[in-house]
C-alpha cells in the first residue's frame, strides 16, 4: 500500500472535515468590505469615494450605485494604463508585480491585466481548496503519489520594467510551492520553453519517464498534447504510457464539446473535474463528483455580481449597457443566464470578465459557464448563445456518431441577398454537410424559440462546411499563438469571418 499517499489522503480528508462551509452571502459582504477598505486610498478609491460607500447602511447597494461597470478597454483606458506610465496606487495599493497577458477570443492584441501578490496568494489558496476537494472523489491512496501534468503557457515570464508579464497559467506555475515541485510536470525546464510545438515535442520525448496521475489544462490544447505523445510512442491510447492517469482538471471552456474526441484518446474512463481559472482570478471549482457544475469561491478575494443575460442589456461589442440591472447573489435564479461581474484583489472593479454563467444549484452556489457575451449571435434576432450552439453540436455528434471538437459560426448575406448562418465544423470523421446543416437547423429550432422565429422571417437557413480540426489551431497560431490560455472564438463578425474563410481556402490549397 502507498503509505505516503495514504498520509496525504488522510490529511486532505481531515482538512476537508475541519474546514467550515461559510455562508456565501456573508462571505461576499465581508470580501467587498475588505476590498473597499484596502483600496480606499487609491486613485480609484478616492475618485469613487470608497470611504462614503463604507459608511453606507447597505455597502453592496451603495457600491453598485456609485461605481459603474467596466470592461477591459474602459478600465485600461481610464485607469490601468497609468501603471505603465510609472504611477502606483491606481486601482489597488502599490504596483502589481505581474501583468497577465490574455488575447482572449478576439483579435491579436493582448490584454494586460494586473496581477497582485494578493491575487497570486488567492489563486494558491483556491488551488489548495481544489486539492482538498479531492477527498470527495473516490480516488485510491496511491493517486496522491502520482505526478501532475499542468499544461499551461510558458513559465519564462518576460521582464518589462518593474514587472513581469505572461499568461496567468505561467504566472501561477512560476509561483508553485516548493513542496509541490517534485509532483509538477513537465518540470521547470520544459515549462519555460516559449514555443508551443517545441514544448509539446519535449513532453512527448520525456513522457515515458513520468508516472502521470492527473492532467490540468484547456481541453483543445490538452488533446493536441495527448495526440502528440500517442503518435511519438506509436500507442493506441494515452493509458499505454500513463497507466495511472485517473483525473483531468479541465478549465477555461466548457468540457462537453470536447468530451467525445477527448475520450477517444483514453484506454479507460477518468474523472473529469471542471475548474474556472481566468486571467482575472480563480473563480470557481468542482468539489464533488457526478456533476460538471463548479462552486463559486465566495471567500477568497473576489466579489461577484450578476447581470441578466438579455439582448436589451448587451451591446454589439459584447459589453453591457449602463442601465443594465445587477442581481445580488441571494437573488439569482437557477437555470437563468447571467453576465458575470467581478471586483478583485488585483484592482478590477465591477469588471465584465466576458463570460456568461448559470446557477445549477443555488444552495450550493454551483455554476456552469454557458458562453461569452461576444459569442451571442443576434444579427437577425436569433438570440443564439454559445451554450445552445454547443448543445446542438453535441446532438450532431450523437446522431451521426462523429466527433466535432471545434466550430465557428457567422451570420451574413448569401449570394441571393438573404441572411444565413454559416457554420464551419471541425471533424476528422466523414460527413455529409447538407445532412449536418439540416440536423443542426432542426436542433436549434427545438432548443431556442427565438431562433425558430428568426428562421421563419429574416434568417433564410444554415450552411455547413466540414474541415480538419487542426485548421482551428493553425488559425490561432497565425492570429494569436498556440497553447496556453488561448481559446477559439465561436462567433465571428462578417469582417473577421471573411479573413477566416480566406485562411481556410489558402490552407486547403497548400495541403
Summarize the structure in words.
The protein is α/β, with parallel strands linked by helices. The protein has three domains: 24-89 and 294-374, no CATH class; 119-285, Rossmann fold, CATH 3.40.50; 377-510. Helix content is 37%, strand content 21%. The chain contains 17 helices and 18 strands. The protein has helices at 3-18, 24-39, 43-47, 50-55, 59-66, 72-84, 117-133, 168-173, 188-191, 196-206, 219-232, 256-263, 386-400, 433-447, 449-455, 470-479, 494-510, and strands spanning 98-102, 111-115, 147-151, 158-160, 163-166, 184-185, 212-217, 247-251, 271-278, 281-285, 294-296, 302-308, 337-344, 351-361, 366-372, 406-413, 419-426, 459-467. The strands form three sheets. The chain has an eleven-stranded mixed beta sheet with strand order 6-3-7-8-9-10-11-15-14-13-12, sandwiched between helices. A hairpin with a 2-residue loop joins strand 4 (158-160) and strand 5 (163-166). Helix 13 (386-400) crosses helix 14. InterPro entries: GH3 (IPR004993), GH3_C (IPR055378), GH3_M (IPR055377).
Briefly characterize the structure.
The protein has 511 residues and is α/β, with parallel strands linked by helices. It has 17 helices and 18 strands. An eleven-stranded mixed sheet has the order 6-3-7-8-9-10-11-15-14-13-12, with helices on both faces. Strands 2-1-5-4 form a four-stranded mixed sheet.
